[in-house]
Every structure is written in structure tokens, then in C-alpha cells.
Design brief:
The chain is mainly β and about 120 residues long. The protein is about 0% helix and about 60% strand. It contains no helices and eleven strands.
């Protein structure tokens, strides 16, 4: 089992920045990829960014050039630096870890971008 705890959400004006952090605990040796998803009100959860254990990254088109995902394999953390935030970035952001064919999720952290 893997437990994930997110932090760093909040309210920010458009154009501002936020940094989300996620700490993994438990059976962390099984974790391969980690990532961030988000869910806006009335919409499905969508992929934001992922990073493999070797540092290969993937970004949704909507956040390319504005968001940066990073990972510390020693401390089992994954961060998401979000710059130039837009109101459409508003939602609950979830940390995800993949390990041994299973998906693990954090409880989510709210990000609200005001216009």
C-alpha cells in the first residue's frame, strides 16, 4: 500500500503561481510513475503531468510551458510548480502514484484561480 498526501493548494489571482507537493509513504519501493491530475466542477478528472522514476515527463497541452513537474526519489516526493495560472486551472488537484499495476491517489488539494 502507498499513501499520498498533497499540500500547497490555495487561492491565487490569474497570472500568479502556486507550488503543489505530494509526499508518498508506505510501500514506496514499488512506485514507478507519479503524476498530478485535476478535476474541475462538473468535469471529469484529467491528467495534468506525469514523471517516471527516471525523470521522463509528460504534460497536458493546456499546461505546457506553464507547469513543471519534478520528483525526488530519495524523499518520495513529487512537486508541481504552476506559473501563469489561469481561471480555467481551477479545480481539485490529485497526486497519483503507479506501482505494481495499481493506482494510488491522494485526497486532493483545492486550487482556485480568480480572474
Amino acid at each position: 500500500q502507498v499513501q499520498l498526501v498533497e499540500s500547497g493548494g490555495g487561492l491565487v489571482q490569474a497570472g500568479g503561481s502556486l507550488r503543489l507537493s505530494c509526499a508518498a509513504s508506505g510501500d514506496t519501493v514499488c512506485i514507478s510513475a507519479m503524476g498530478w491530475y485535476r478535476q474541475a466542477p462538473g468535469k471529469e478528472r484529467e491528467l495534468v503531468a506525469t514523471i517516471t522514476s527516471k525523470g521522463r515527463t509528460y504534460y497536458a497541452d493546456s499546461v505546457k510551458g506553464r507547469f513543471a513537474i519534478s520528483r525526488d526519489n530519495t524523499n518520495n516526493t513529487v512537486d508541481l510548480q504552476m506559473n501563469s495560472l489561469k481561471p480555467e486551472d481551477t479545480g481539485v488537484y490529485y497526486c497519483q502514484a503507479v506501482g505494481e499495476g495499481r493506482n494510488y491517489w491522494g485526497q486532493g488539494t483545492q486550487v482556485t484561480v480568480s480572474s
